[in-house]
Amino acid sequence: MSSNDTKIRPASPAVLDKKTTGGRIRALGRRIWSFRESYTLILPGAVWYAVFAYLPMYGLLLAFKTYKAKLGIFGSPWVGLENYVYVFRDISFMQAVLRTLQINAGRLLFQFPVPIILAMLFNEIRLGKSKKVLQSVFTFPHFLSWVIVASVLTNVLSMNGMANAIIKIFGGDGINFLGS
Fold it and tell me: Pick from 54, 84, 59: which is nearest to 72 by CA?
């Protein structure tokens, strides 16, 4: 044996103790405690992902089962890929896929450029006040829910609504806008 060759010695019991699971967990706990402010900032995001990204994954099991309500998700019989075979063999499946692709292509061609063109046209308006008014008018609907829009239209156009009230003020009969 030459002087360059070193003999590998077994680790001492003290070194082995530090590498045990308990020692690693304690070291991890100390590290987490020393950076507790950072982990506190991460906690809301981690809880959000756990609740809204990972827990719903259990619902994906339904695609591989024949669901029976009285048995629940975990008690329902397992069918494997049988549900997928049924869907892919359906004639209307391919029609639905093609229709979806057509709708998305149409939206990319026609709906996507319109806001960009409109923004470029607004940029060319020289009068500051009219420019801001037009921008507000065009962007305001994006902040409303369709439920709110439907409620407002129902209240305006109903038999007791604002439109019929104005018609009646001028001597006309009410019009059933929503019923005819």
Answer: 59
Which parts of the chain have pLDDT scores under 70? 1-19
Distance CA 35, CA 10 (A): 35
Q: Coil, strand, or helix at residue 78?
A: strand
What is the rounded distance in angstroms from the CA atom of residue 84 to the CA atom of residue 74? 19
Token digits of residue 73: 């998700």
State the pLDDT at residue 10: 56
Residue 160 to residue 67: CA distance in whole angstroms: 48
Question: So what's the pLDDT on residue 140?
Answer: 82
Question: Are 178 and 158 within 8 A, CB to CB?
Answer: yes
Query: Rounded to an integer, what distance in angstroms lies between the CA atom of residue 27 and that of residue 91?
Result: 59
What is the per-residue pLDDT for 11? 54
Name the DSSP letter for residue 25: H
